[in-house]
Amino acid sequence: MYLQTENKQTGKEVIIHSWRKANQIRDWFVRRFDLDPNDQLKIAITRDDLEALTSDIEQVLASHALALELLPTAAGFFFGSTDYDGYYFEVLRDTRHFLQKEFTYNSDLENLYYTEWW
Predict the structure, then answer these.
(1) N or C: which end of the chain has fewer CB within 10 A?
(2) Distance between CA atoms of residues 42 and 30, nearest Å
């Protein structure tokens, strides 16, 4: 699973972040965009989408009881564990860190996508 930019002039694609076995992140995108969870996804997203994801992550990290409501796990082939364990929360912390500290993208020059390959 990846966040990817695409240069609007050249079409060059660059992976800017990746997840491995982060089914709660994938399921968040499936639910937000009302997609078929059995499809391989490539979704055009916006900074607003990522801000909403960050908000949900922050709420779950502040209160683990919200995990089932805001960022539930999802079972599936190659999707990893559905436990709400240390790895689940590590993925959330890493994602939050990337989105708050490292994420850069210029919507005038680039398209932004959540995409996956499996």
Answers:
(1) C
(2) 11
Q: Spell out the residues 6+ positions from residue 36 whose beta carbon is closer than 8 angstroms to its own.
A: 30
The rounded distance, in Å, linking the Cα atoms of 11 and 83 is 38
What distance in Å separates the CA atoms of residue 55 and residue 60, rounded to the nearest whole number?
Answer: 9
Q: 108: which 2 tokens?
A: 């005038």
pLDDT digits (tens, 9 = 90+) for 68-90: 999 999 987 667 889 999 999 99
CB 41 within 8 A of CB 29: yes
DSSP per residue, 29-75: HHHHTT--TTS--EEEE-HHHHHHHHHHHHHHHH-GGGHHHHS----
Residue 29: closest CA among 14, 43, 40, 47:
43
| Angle at the Cα of 96 from the Cα atoms of 91 and 100, rounded to 5 degrees | 155
